[in-house]
């Protein structure tokens, strides 16, 4: 008869907690759909379909989250959206 020995190991898992922020784009009566779509493609790296969907959501819902990530990545993107005349903020 053999004896089996069970070994239980304790493993610590290091989790990196990252605070994610969002760029929220707001509706306005100034910018065209094409301008919003082109801006989202250029600045937020959206596909054409993503940019179109966001533009529609902004138009009908009043706002839409267009990019999620770390603050240091979002800050220059939000600044570029604002410089193109769009209404956006980081939350």
List keywords for this structure.
91 residues, Ribosomal Protein L30, Chain: A, 3-stranded antiparallel beta sheet, ClpS_core, peptidase activity, protease, Ribosomal_bL12_C/ClpS-like, hydrolase
- The rough form would be described as elongated
**What is the count of β-strands?**
3
Major beta-sheet overview: 3 strands, antiparallel
Ends apart, CA distance between termini: 65 Å
Would you identify the CATH architecture? 2-Layer Sandwich
CATH level-3 fold name: Ribosomal Protein L30, Chain: A
GO biological process, one term: protein catabolic process
GO molecular function, one term: peptidase activity
Domain Adaptor protein ClpS core: 18-83
Protein name: Clp protease ClpS
Description of the molecule:
The protein has 3 helices and 3 strands, in the order βααβαβ. By secondary structure, it is an alpha+beta fold. Helix 1 (33-44) crosses helix 2 (48-61). It starts with 20 loop residues before the first strand and ends with a strand. It has one domain: Ribosomal protein L7/L12, C-terminal domain/Adaptor protein ClpS (Ribosomal Protein L30, Chain: A, 2-Layer Sandwich), CATH 3.30.1390. Helix content is 43%, strand content 19%. It comes from Lutibacter profundi. This is Clp protease ClpS.
């Amino acid at each position: 008869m053999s004896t089996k020995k069970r070994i239980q190991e304790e493993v610590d898992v290091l989790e990196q907690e990252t605070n994610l922020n969002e760029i929220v784009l707001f509706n306005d009566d100034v910018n065209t759909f094409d301008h919003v779509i082109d801006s989202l493609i250029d600045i937020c790296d959206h596909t054409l379909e993503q940019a179109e969907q966001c533009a529609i959501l902004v138009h009908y819902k009043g706002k839409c989250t267009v990019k999620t990530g770390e603050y240091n990545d979002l800050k220059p993107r939000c600044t570029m959206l604002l410089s193109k005349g769009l209404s956006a903020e980081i939350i």
